[in-house]
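Our preliminary data section would be incomplete without showing what the modeling component actually yields. Below, a chain of 196 amino acids is followed by its predicted structure, encoded as C-alpha cells that our downstream tools consume directly.
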Amino acid sequence: YGEDTADFLELIIVGDQTVTIALYTIELFDGDTQQIYDIINLGDVAEQMHPGERLVIGPPSIANAIGENSVGVVVPGDFLQNGGTNGDAVRVIRNGFEIMDAVSYEAPVLGASEGGGHIGFDSDLINEGLSFGRCPDSLDTDNNASDFNSGVPTPGLPNDCPAESVPTFWDDVQPIFMTWCGSCHAGDSVQGCAGQ
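Predicted structure:
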C-alpha cells in the first residue's frame, strides 16, 4: 500500500481517576509472526495523566500539532505495519504484562481482538482521508468491530462520529483507556487500531 506518513494512535483518559501513565506501554504486534515489533514506553512521556487528557502518538506533523489537554509523542510516520492477511494489532500494557486493551486491524489477531473481530481494512479508507476511531468518542464495549467507525481524523480532539453511532446503552463502557488511531492521508494505506 505504500509508505504511511501520517499514522497516529490516540489514547484518552476516561473516568474520574488520575492515571500513572509511567506504568503503561504500547505494544505493536505483528499478526504474521505473532511477535511484538515495537514497544512505546509511555513513562518517557509523562508520570501521570488526568481524566479527559489525550495522548497522541504520531509523526511530528501530528504529535506536535495537537491542542490543549493533549500530550504528543513523536515517532516515525510509518510506525504502524499494514496488517496483511493475518492482521496486526496494538495493545495497551500495564506493569509489563497486563493487557488493558487491544485492537487488531485487517484480521483478528490472537490476544488482540476484543469481541473476536477486527476494526476494518486499510483499503476501506485508502482514498478517503479517513481513519478508524471509537464512536462515540471513547466508547469501549469490548467489541471492537462495533465500537469503531471510519471518520475524519481528529488527533488530540474528540472523534468526529456520525450520528448513527450513538449507542442506546452504556453498561459495558470501561473507564480506563480508550484509543483511536488511523491515518489522515490519501493514496497510501491507512492503519486503524485502538483500545482502552
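The first helix runs from residue 60 to 63. The CA atoms of residues 26 and 92 lie 5 Å apart. Preliminary results of this kind motivate Aim 1 of the renewal.
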